Structure formats: C-alpha cells, structure tokens
Amino acid sequence: MSEERYGDYDVIGRPMPKKDGLHKASGRAQYADDIAMPGMLHGKLLRSPHPHARILNIDAARALALPGVRAVVTGRDFPGIHYGNLPQTRDYLPLALDKVRYIGEEVAAVAAVDEDTAEEALERIEVEYEPLPAVFDMDEALQPGAPQLHGASPGNVSARSAYHFGDVDAALRLAAHVREDLFETQPVKQGMLEPHACVGLWEQPGKATLWACKMSPYVVWRQLAMGLGMALGDVRVVQTYVGGGFSGGKQEAMPMDFCAVVLSRRTGRPVKFVHTMDEVLTIGHMRHPMRIRLRTGTDREGRILAQDCYLLANGGAYSSIGGFSIFLAGAMINLPYRVPNMRYQAQRIYTNNGFCGALRGHTVVQICYARESQLERIAEDLAIDPVALRLRNAVQPGEVTPNGFRVGTFAFRECIEKVVEASGWRAKRGSLPAFRGIGLGCGAHLSGARLMGHSASVAEIRVQEDGTVYLSTGSTDVGQGVETAMAMIAAEVLGVGVDDIRCTRVDTESTPVDPGTFGSRVTLFTGNAVKRAAQEARAQLARIAADKLGVDAADLAFRRHEIFSRSNPKLRMGLKEAVRWGAFQLGQMVTGRGVYAAGDEKIDFRTGYGNLSPAYNPSACVAEVEVEPETGRVTLLGFWGADDSGFPINPLAVRGQVIGAAVMSIGHALFENLVRVQGQVMNPSLRDYKMPLATDLPKLGNFHHYNIVTEDPEGPFGAKEAGQGAGTGVVAALAYAIRDATGLPMNRLPLSPQNILLALMRARDAQGEAG
Amino acid sequence: MTDRVEISLQVNGVRHSLSIRPWRTLLEVLREELALTGTKRSCGEGQCGACTVLVDGNAVNACMYLALEALGRDVRTIEGPAQGDAALDAIQRSFVDKGAVQCGFCTPGMVMATRALLQDNPLPDEDAIREALVGHLCRCTGYVQIVEAIQDAAAKLAGCAERAHE
Ligand code: FES
Ligand code: FES
Predict the structure, then answer these.
(1) Pick from A372, A407, A574, B55: CA 20 to 30 A from residue A761's CA?
(2) Which residue range forms the structural domain that includes residue A194?
C-alpha cells in the first residue's frame, strides 16, 4: 500500500489532468443551455399553485393571442401513459392530466420567440382548479381518512421494504445492552450549479431528438419513448456537457424534455427549456427526509448482536426511484460492521410535497448518520472507547454478510486507524476546551448496484492508422472524470498516451447502450468493459505484429506507441505500422468490444438477499468543531477522511471526488434544509438554501483525505468507487463532534445554528428547573 | 421596435453595435446577442458567481448587471484572448492541472474571479483566496483543489513577474 505501487504502470495510478479540463476552463464546453439553433423557440412551464387539486379546465386562448407565442401544450397533448423508474412505480406523466399533487407540478407548457414572452404567456393561461384536501406529514398521511394521492396506492404507501436475517428477537433477548434511538433527517437538494436544460427537435415524418444534460441518457431515452407513446427507434437522446448532476432530474426524463419535443412538433422549430434556480429548488428531486427508529443489541464488550430498524421516508408526491431508495437504506444498515441478526421494515409515504429520489450517497447517508450516532451512544453507555468499538465490529475482507454481500477488499481497519492518527484523536478526545469537540463517523458504499433491469456496460474501441483510438461507451462524464479515467485504462492497455484516446459522448443512435452514471457504477462496470475492449484490440494488434515480426504474440508488449518482443526487444514495430499493415495488407480493422455484466447473481428485492455490488468500499472520518454557545454557530476546525477506493486509476480525480463527497455531506449536516410549509418551498433560492462556501471549511492544513489503496479483484486494475462512499460517515462525525462539544443529543438534522441554539436553551432551562 | 436601444459594447477588446431592450442584463446580452456562452447562467440572482465577468478589471455578476451599465467600459469574459494574456492562461492551466475543474460549470466564473484577485493581490494568502471565493459556489470540488490551483497560479505568475524584472 505504498506510493510506489502507483508506479508499476505507465498511465494509470498517476495524477492526470482532465481531458476536457481546458475546454471547460476556457468556456468552450457546450452545455445544454449554450445550444442555439436557427429559429429556436423558448419554452416555459406553468406550475400548480396548489398542493392537491383537480384540474377542471385549462384555457390557453389568451396566451396564444400574445404576439410571439407559438404554441401551448397541456397533459391532453400526450397519450396519457405513465412512466417511471421501476415497473411497479410508474406514476409520472409528462404534464398533469386531471390532478396535481404538489406545488410546482407542471400543468402546461408554452413555446414563444423568447423567454420573456414565454414567461408572460404563462400568466395568461387560465387553469380552473378544484382544491382538494392535502397532506404533508407522514403520520397524517398514514391515518385512516387521510387525503389519498394515488388511487393505485391505497393508504398513501408508495413503497415498502422488509427483510429479516437471523433471529433479531432472540438476539435482543440475549443482549447485555439494548438501545433504541430515533433520528430525523431533512430534505436536501442536489444543488448542482447547472439547472436542468434541454433542446427538443421534431423531424418529419416522426422522429424526436433531445439534447440534454443527462447523467443516464439511455434511461431518459426509454422514458421519453414510453411517455410519448413512440417506438424507441424514433427517439434519439444526445448528451451535452453536464454541469453537475448528483442524481435527480438529470437521471430521468423530466416534463421539460417531453414538452420540448412535443412543442417542436407543433411549431416546426427547435424548442429550448432551461429551469430557473427557483424552479430547480421548487420541483421534486431531493434526498428523502426520514425518521429512523433503530434498536441495537450488543454484548458487554459492545459486539453488535442485532439491529432492528423501522424507517419511514416522506417520499412526496411521486415515486421517482424511491422504491430502490428505501430498499438500499436497509441493505446498507450493517456495513461496515458485522451484524449477525438484522431486521428492517420501511415504508415510503406519499405526501403533497415535492418528490424525493436519489442524491449522492443515496439513502446510505441517512442510515449511516443514524447507525454511527447510535454506536457512539452505545460506546458511552458501556464506557468503551468508540474507536475500539468500531474495530471490534469491523467487517473483514472476504466476509459474507447475513444479507448476502460478498465483501472483497475492505480496508476498514486501516481507514479508522489513519484518521484517528492523522486527527490527533487520542490526544484531543476528552481534553479539548469547552465548546470544542471531536467526532468519528464511518460508512461504506457500493461500486455499482446489480439491479434486476439493465446492469451491464459495453465499450467499443477502434484503433486508427495514425495511432489514435476511438473509445465509445454509454457512460457519461458529469464532472467526476470518467472520460479521463476510461481513456487512461485504454491507454494503459494499448501502450499509448491519454491524449491519443478520443472519447465519445452519448448519442443513443451510435454509442453502446448503458444504464448511465449512478450508484458509483461507472469506474467498475464501464472500466472493466473498456479494459476488455482494449485487450481485445491489443490481441488483434499482437497477432498482426507477431506475424510481421515472426515472434510469438504472447511475447509481445505494448508501450509508448510501440509493440516489441519481451525476449528480444530489438524486434519491434510502431503501433501505427501494425494498424496499417493490418488494414492495408490483411484487410483487418483493429477493433475491440468489451462487456461487463457483473456476473449473473442478482439480488432478490423481496427477501433482501443477494450480493448487491461487485465491490464494497469502507470509509472513516474525524471532524473537529467549535460551537459558539451564544449563536449556535458551528465552526469546522478540522476534517480528516480516509476511504478505501481500491486502486486509484486517476489519483487527482479520486481526491476531487472524495473531498467533494465529504463537503457535500458537511453541507447536509450543518446548513442545508429545504424548508416547506404546507407544501410550499420557503427557500427556493441559493441565498436561502445554504450550501457550503469556501469560507465554511477548514483551511488546507486541517483538511485531509487519505486513499487507502487496495486492489479489488472485481475492479479494473483493482479500482473501486470514489464518488460517494467518502461522504457517508461525515454527517455522523459532525453530529458527534457537536455532541462532544455541547453534551447535546444531535438526533435531528440539520445541525444548524437555530437547532443547536434551541437545544442549548432547552438544556439550560432543564438544568435551571433541576437546580 | 420602440422598446429597443442602440448601444455599443466593448467585449474582449472588440466593439459591438447592438440593439437591445434596455432591461437586458449583461449576461443575457453576452450569451444571446454575442454568443459568448462561456459565461454561465445558474442562479440568476447574484448568489453563485457562475456568471462572473470583468468590467474595467472588477469582477461583477453579469446576471445582476444591466448591459447598459457597461457602456463605455471594458468588458472581459472567459473567451477573452488567452494568447498574449499570460495571466488568464496560467490560471486556466493551474485549474486544470490541480484538479480544480470537475463539471466545469463554476469554472469560468472562478477563473475570472481569480484574475481579478491576482490583479489586486498577486500573492494572496489562503484566507484572502477563500474570501475572494465567497460569492462563488462550487458543488463538485469542495474548494480544496480550487484554492490549491489559485495558489499555484499566483506562484507561477509571481515567478514570471520576477523574471521579467531581472
Ligand atoms: S448566475 Fe449570476 S451569480 Fe449566479
Ligand atoms: S466544478 Fe462543478 S460546480 Fe464547480
């Protein structure tokens, strides 16, 4: 696990600036909002002002009469086919038909010559609503007689997940110590800087093209075809540069995507939509707020005997990916610990709020917050060192968990030891001055999920006669640096430079089909496919060169654009020459195809059993804080994180990913909260929805992240995920640091000045009464 | 049309004669009239800094700045000629080399802010750098690599300036 290990390779394992970096830094990268086409119209969406209402009538006559307005569409202009992410949870429509279920839901769309005119036209569309009783709270939504959101889901239960491994009740009876806690988390937004944007174009006789900033263009492609009632072959989705995604609307087809295409059909012009930040923050797509009741039994030494979890998630008005969200929270409740008995019961509830889905770390972030906070409390109860408690329960490499995760490499112990040492934990814990505190948080994540639907990735490679390489995959670079990492893998195998690799962006007409970018799957899944494609191309080149040089193909090595014999390095030829010889003399194009299908194991979502991912990565972090008792303000003084992301293909990008994930979770812990009152978002602007700024974070000298390098046999060159796991333990580390500083239980997020001040005041009052 | 005004705007050293509606922001005019889309539109209300350009050398949020206010002033955007402009070039290079660019949506604004910062304060300490970024959101990087990139660019440019003096 030393630095030298990086050096065994020519290309991978070394910091590599992003291939598209200069393009972006010079303003030349074209994002969706940068597209301009001749005659292009601008679209805007009309949104419901009611949390729950029947639509009685929509009259667009006055809007259409406004000069510059070209067309208006409503739900009636679509075939009325529901679409969604999982077959059992298709509840989206392109535009509302007869009912709206949350404030901000799309009811009509207009196309006009410019944005101002489109905006003005919205005010002239008259919608007659019949307001219905609405419900915002999960408990109220579960009451008999509560307003019902979806006829197909009586009782407002949007999804359920339940499983049981071992015998929890028996284990809890035997436990020396049982603790039950309740934790509550808040809605948090993706917060990407680029608002959703798209351009739709309808071409005769019946073909729809959408340019959009999507993370999973093939998901959008299928959903678009479904909601439009069109054949897949008549729909084309072209990916633009993506200005940050973090899941959400860039993962799915959104109302704007459908409307752009249908308004283009109406008007014969391309139509562009761009959300304002107000819209981005008002519509659905956010992290699920949850209430997590966790009961854990341990022996006297703090060994975990059983975990029993009951979870409710406020899903909002639609399903999005929520069925998987609540499955995942339970599936990841144990990792990175050994838990012999586990039981999970969860419900996702429909309410008249903006809907929830995935966001970096998905639901692992919430569950880690609850579990880690409780482990700290258990350590207190039993007077055990919290570090020792974690190490005692740590899953070891090669273990199989009761729910069927086959853990491969798993340097959890090393992660903990690293952050404990780097942060000075031993010296600081218990000896910091008043209102200073330090906390530890741990977590784990998947390197891509094996889903029942589309899991496999494909890569295609063509080596050109000038030695450049075309690399085509269906994965998307959303800023995390996939393009560079994939190019590095291909370059390593073929013995060329990263600059020689030309990568494609997704165009559903030409790139290989792929599930897209989510769940930290790309480095492992697509990376393996790229490696195999490059190996196939290399084998072809080796056969050509072996023939020409009169050596055994197995004896050939590829380095620095040359193919040479290992046993007699004088026998060599240029890569280009081999390509030409193959093409010109043998009529052989050098191409490679690689597939990674994650094996045939699949997870059983009903029982919860199965090996959810090909690889798992643990992480640990320590946070040190100071709390200002007069204001409740928290200053993060230091942060030390460690993550086992396998072998770092591009250490520069891995560092950016782990730090980015950690900072996002710092925002989640300390500031971020989408405030809603009766379904109305009260802070739909970046002024009021607070995300971390450069000044909110520790200085460079006190902000460190360490890669614990392992080589996972499942990953390409041993790589695992890096973009999400590092953020999973962070919320708990902060919560505990604040508890350490103040003595307050931090069972409710965010740990904002208001909440801390309130808790401090309550504690003072309680003390006063007691005294 | 009666609601339009004729203006002349100097952007990146080039004069443009335009007919615009007087309430158009500099951001809208740059992106829509001049097709200079390197300046990004994100929050549209002065909170994120993605739209930062230089007006007479000062960093401003183009989304909060009327195009009319820029009359007679020198507007510089991310597309401004990088050749012969070692400062912009070095800053961009440092951003890329240090991993400060992820999705890149904040990058043009960050680069322009850095340019304004280094003009005023060629060797800023870390606090000064973080202060200068306070009107700039980046959701991807956590700012660490951005701060490092700015330090790197400052050091390189200071080195150049020193050599030029010798
Ligand atoms: S777009 Fe101008 S500050 Fe955000
Ligand atoms: S790089 Fe994505 S917002 Fe900064």
Answers:
(1) A372
(2) 37-383
Cα A14 to Cα A94: distance, rounded to the nearest angstrom: 46
Residues A562 and A655 in one domain: no
Task: For chain B, say whether A456 makes contact (Cβ under 8 Å).
Answer: no
Q: Under 8 Å CB-to-CB from A418, ≥6 apart: which residues?
A: A620, A640, A642, A706, A708
Higher pLDDT, A204 or B76: B76
Which amino acid would we find at residue A362? H
Domain count, chain B: 2
Using CB distances shorter than 6 Å, the residues near ligand 1 are B 41-44, 46-51, 61, 63
Which of the pair, A146 or A152, is modelled with greater confidence?
A146
- Backbone conformation region of residue A587, classed left if phi is above 0, alpha if psi is from -120 to 50, else beta: left
Mutate to test the interface with B, among A14, A22, A24 (most CBs of B within 10 A): A24
Residue A203 lies in a domain: yes
A536: closest CA among A486, A592, A482? A592
Asked whether residue A758 falls in the same domain as residue A663, the answer is yes
Longest dimension (CA), chain B: 58
Identify the CA nearest to A713 among candidates A398, A480, A443, A335: A398
pLDDT at A87: 84
A204 half-sphere exposure, CB direction, 13 A CA radius: 4
Q: Are residues A378 and A243 in the same domain?
A: yes
Shortest distance between the Cα of A725 and any Cα of chain B, in A, equals 15
Domain hosting B106: range is: 81-165
Tell me how far CA of residue B66 lies from CA of A364, B40, B61, B78, in angstroms.
45, 16, 10, 19
Q: Is the dihedral of CA A91, A95, A98, A100 positive or negative?
A: positive
The average confidence (pLDDT) of chain A is 95
Q: What band does A310 get if pLDDT is binned at 50, 70 and 90? A: very high
Q: Which of B44, B60, B80 is the last residue of a domain?
A: B80
Does residue B56 sit in the same domain as residue B76? yes
Q: Are B102 and B74 contained in the same domain?
A: no
Is residue A509 included in any domain, yes or no?
yes
